[in-house]
Amino acid sequence: MIRSVIIGTGSALPARRVSNAELAETVDTTDEWIVERTGIRFRHIAGPDETTATLAADACKAALGAAGKSAQEVDLIVLATATPDQTFPASATKVQAMLGIDDCVAFDVAAVCSGFLYALQVADSMIRAGAYRCALVIGAETFSRILDWEDRTTCVLFGDGAGAVLLEAQESADSDGRGILATKLHADGRHNELLYVDGGPSTTGTVGKVRMKGREVFRHAVVNLASVMGESLAIAGLGAEQVDWVVPHQANARILDATARKLGLAPGKVVVTVDQHANTSAASVPLALDTAVRDGRIKPGQLIVLEAMGGGFTWGASVVRF
After folding, report:
1. Cα–Cα distances in Å, from 133 out to 6, 244, 304?
2. Is there a catalytic annotation at residue 279?
């Protein structure tokens, strides 16, 4: 069988790092209030010359470097983002040009915080079909551009960044071999009003700002994430006890803790970066993955579960033998 194997990871963060204390100088909040409710201590904010595409390109370069591959070997780019550089063309095509790739398939996927999982499933399906052999899958955001900085319930939660993985088609006769083993995705558009942006080209003609009902989102997140992780493991024929690491969407430390408890997972098996990066939406999962790979926690051969939930609602999980 053909498997999509992660052979390289990479990430990129804006140069400016903002602490809760610095944020409290302009927003009606405190470090204690933010940490108690979210676990967030820092976030990175993009400068004028830093965009979703530039961050994505830097993350891709790091992933290519980790894999020892040339950009010219890439034949597919799938970029998950809710904050593209332009309404069109796709930011993935800008990344393609920045990488110096003359021709490959390149497009964006929009599923907000679940975007990277959606993009991963798309790329995996295209690789399994035999159409492509080397794919960059990216999550990149500049959420600071769509925040209402007078709304302390949302502006303290988000940050900017990018993460990427390089997938390679590899043949495997072993059901336990490396690669993406199973992915399960969901969407339920009835919950649009709980987490959304109040603008768009076809409605207001403006970009809009993030709006969220945090209590309701928290409740749905814990239930949905625990459920979809169980579903993806069942598809792969594996149990939670076999998982080495869970790499979750970094939205809120309390959601991470509650989800781990619901699944009976030890907190030490959950990769947590929300304290340093805040919620980077589609970039969250690949950014956390790259952090754990580069600091030595995640090693080849280990079983990892990636999971996320975002506006829509959309949610999903992927089981990967790293």
Report:
1. 12, 27, 22
2. yes
